[in-house]
Write a structure and sequence with these properties.
This protein has seven helices and nine strands. The protein is of the alpha/beta class. A hairpin with a 2-residue loop joins strand 5 and strand 6. It starts with a strand and ends in a 5-residue tail after the last helix. The model has no long low-confidence stretch (mean pLDDT 88).
Length: 179
């Protein structure tokens, strides 16, 4: 059975990592991909593998990544080994909305889980995490509605309410009950 790779996308503050972690906690056949990012591990946010620019370059040269890209002054890589997680029927990876066509080409069985939330919800979450200045938050909120993914493989879920409800809707949409 082929593992389905699900690219989880959405604006900053929408709760991508929270939704992904909750989905994996409920289902042992769902695995999370830890991305390699050119920032120190433990710098806040998602659990990632930190790499220097030189280390990242070496990994690109060694064809370590199934997919990689640059965004927001950082580089992100999806390790090939993480996508081939043994025992996983679904692998979740936090992706940039701008690389979805590359992801579609990189993975045989691919879907997009597009999370959205009201501007007020996003603003409250961004303020609470305390990583951005007020000006940076305003800029992120202005970008939030842009680049909504399109395509037959896109599943759009609102994450304005309780996390558990969002997770249940996402799981049902990814693996609907068959009659």
């Amino acid at each position: 059975m082929t593992t389905k790779v699900v690219g989880v996308v959405g604006p900053s503050g929408v709760g991508k990592d929270s939704v992904m972690e909750a989905m994996a906690a409920l289902r042992k056949d769902i695995q999370l991909v830890r991305r390699v990012i050119t920032r120190p591990a433990g710098a806040g946010g998602e659990k990632s593998i930190g790499a220097t620019e030189a280390e990242f370059d070496d990994q690109v040269a060694q064809d370590h990544f199934q997919l990689w890209w640059a965004a927001h002054g950082l580089r992100y890589g999806v390790p090939r080994a993480a996508v081939d997680a043994p025992g996983a029927s679904i692998v979740l990876v936090n992706l940039s909305r701008g690389i979805l066509d590359q992801a579609r080409a990189a993975f045989d069985d691919f879907a997009v889980l597009s999370l959205k939330a009201r501007t007020e919800t996003l603003g409250d979450r961004l303020t609470a995490r305390g990583r951005e200045t007020s000006a940076e938050i305003v800029a992120r909120l202005e970008r939030a509605g842009s680049m909504r993914p399109q395509g037959d493989d896109v599943i759009e879920i609102s994450n304005d309410g309780p996390l558990g409800e969002t997770v249940q809707r996402a799981l049902a949409a990814l693996q609907p009950v068959r009659a």
